[in-house]
Amino acid sequence: MSPTAEELLDFEDVSVNEETGPDRFTVPEDKSGVRADVFVSESLGITRSAAQKLFDADLVTLGGAAIKKNRPLAPGEEISVTVPEPVSPAAEPEDIPLDVIYEDRDVIVINKPQGMVVHPAPGHEHGTLASALLFHCGSSLSGINGVLRPGIVHRIDRDTSGLICAAKNDAAHLSLSEQLKEHSMFRIYRAVVVGKLPEDEGTVNAPLGRHKTDRKKMAVVSPKDGREAVTHYKVISRPDGFTYAELKLETGRTHQIRVHMAHIGHPVLGDHVYGGGSTQFEKRHPDLFRGQCLHAAELELTHPATGERMRFEAPLPDNFKRILELIKA
């Protein structure tokens, strides 16, 4: 029997996005001859017994074929590891207020608050957007993503606020998913980042994959070990010590904006995971921070039934506005 994710790793909601794909690791020269299970254990930062369960479930491959746990590895070989998603409870309807920006028979667009998890996951079984949508929409949600993520086409992090759309039937879901794949669904964020971005506009093009030692984080990795990720940014203002910026996603990887901005030396303010937390400003105003200062402000898509191009906006949360006032952005 294949192991459950709980038997393998302790994942958070943010670590199981379907867009991350399998982990890929290239064997370096100094690991020549090492056992495959030892290499996977070290690469993923998990116990050897947990790594062996991945082999037992044929989740570790070389050249597309499953390999044995005791196989010695050679430099340059590329190992692919698929970590299964955690076994989470089905979303159940919950009477949770929603800030509905737009709704018709095909789509619904929500302004998600900070702190709300998009779909159930171990440790976050209740109070999710999926549960709120089930109560609000009843049975009129796409079933393509099953009982865990009914109607949900894309996601944003728990501590990021802003726009997210869901499909109310399977045809709408397929259309919106294709728009994401073709990059014709535009998502624009607002963020305050630490330090002053030197250029008024720029692009971060750096592949992302799971962090090799901290499985709850993502990281910029080599093209072989990650997936393409592209973020465009434009400076709105440069208040003292910070930059207020607009960021446009070309791809939608887990934690993409947060990792990309940290990668270029300007982490998102309030982001304790990627280096933007514990600033002096945050210490002076702790009541204003419930996560990273990042908001999905604009969403543009083609209506799946009418073909109309539609654009939605969500106002900045009050704490975000107050931060901008205090830093004089």
What keyword list fits this structure?
Structural Genomics Hypothetical 15.5 Kd Protein In mrcA-pckA Intergenic Region, Chain A; 9-stranded mixed β-sheet; alpha+beta; Pseudouridine synthase; single chain; 4-stranded antiparallel β-sheet; disordered N terminus; about 20% helix; about 325 residues; globular
**Name of the CATH first level of the largest domain:** Alpha Beta
Query: Do you know the CATH architecture of the largest domain?
Result: 2-Layer Sandwich
Number of strands: 15
The largest pleated sheet is described as: 9 strands, mixed
CATH topology of the largest domain: Pseudouridine synthase
On the 0-100 scale, what is the average pLDDT?
88
Short overview:
The chain is of the alpha+beta class and 329 residues long.
Written overview of the protein:
It is built from 7 helices and 15 strands. With 329 residues, it is α+β, with helices and mostly antiparallel strands. It folds into 3 domains: 60 residues, Structural Genomics Hypothetical 15.5 Kd Protein In mrcA-pckA Intergenic Region, Chain A, CATH 3.10.290; 83 residues, Pseudouridine synthase; 141 residues, Pseudouridine synthase (2-Layer Sandwich). The strands form 3 sheets. Strands 5, 6, 7, 8, 9, 12, 13, 14 and 15 form a 9-stranded mixed beta sheet that branches. Strand 12 and strand 13 form a beta hairpin. Helix 1 packs across helix 2. It is globular. The protein starts with 22 loop residues before the first strand and ends with a helix. The N terminus is likely disordered.
